[in-house]
Amino acid sequence: MIDLHSHVLPGIDDGAETLEGSLEILRAAAESGIAQIAATPHVRDDYPTTPETMERGVADLNAAARAAGVAVEVLTGGELDRAFAQKLDDETLRRYGLGGSLDALLVEFPYTGWPLELRDLVFRLGARGFRVVLAHPERNGEVQQSPGRVRELVDAGVLVQLTAASLDGRGGRKAAACARTLLDEELAHLIATDAHAPAIRAVGMNAAVEAVGDADLARWLTHDVPSALVTGSPLPPRPQRRARRLRLHRRSPD
Question: What CATH number should be reported for the domain whose range is 2-231?
Answer without folding.
Answer: 3.20.20.140
